[in-house]
Amino acid sequence: MDCADIALIVLAAGLGSRFGADKLSVPLDGLPVGLHIAHTSNSIDFGWRFAICSPASSLTPRYVEYGFTVIDNANPEAGQAHSLHLAIRAAEDTDAKALLVTLADMPFVTEGLLRKIAAFPTMAASYNGRNAMPPVLFPRTHWAGLLNMQGDAGGRSLLHAAQKVEASAAELRDIDVPDDLVRPADA
Asked: Are 11 and 169 in contact, with CB atoms under 8 Å apart?
């Protein structure tokens, strides 16, 4: 699939309760955790870019600098599915053929991985053949199903038939607790 036909989505409205602070604003290698995916994807010509953020997010102006349309999620406690619903509603007003969903707390995703996932009709990352996980590409035909998801399940139930692209453990690391900032890449 051509990246110009894809809406890039960054889900960045999580509560971060296990971290104990705004984990997306914590510096990591000179950039806030939550902006790594925006920086990594900057050289890919996605047709649309949406960041779903909490209304008070300090990263909102920075996402705008990276060319994202920021959508406020005033109800982040409703879970990841609610953020995904907001993204889908915004993308429905575009000609996008697919959504490439990424998570702002996964700062180690590479441009190469994003490009591989964007190349197929339904694609998700995987490590050692484990379950499909973000980043994940959902074609427009899946959007109605995604709108039925609730809580933090996101689109997990729709991924059973997704093709998987192998990614390294380092690429798929997420930041949930402060120790994740210093955890070795192979952990």
From this structure: no
Is the whole-model pTM more than 0.85?
A: yes
Q: Tokens 């920075």: give the residue.
A: 62
- The string of pLDDT tens digits covering residues 71-112 is 999 988 888 889 999 999 999 999 999 999 999 999 999 999
Please give the Cα distance from 107 to 122 (Å, whole number). 22
Beta-bridge mates of residue 53: 12, 72
Domains of the chain: total: 1
- CA 1 → CA 4, 47, 161, 186, distances in Å? 9, 12, 18, 31
Query: Is the backbone peptide bond immediately before 135 cis, with ω within 30 degrees of 0?
Result: yes
Could you give phi then psi for residue 129, rounded to 5 degrees? 70, 10
Distance CA(71)–CA(173), nearest Å, equals 25
DSSP string, 32-62: EGGGHHHHHHTTS--SEEEEEE-TT-TTHHH
Q: What CATH number corresponds to the domain at position 139?
A: 3.90.550.10
In a domain, 187, yes or no: no
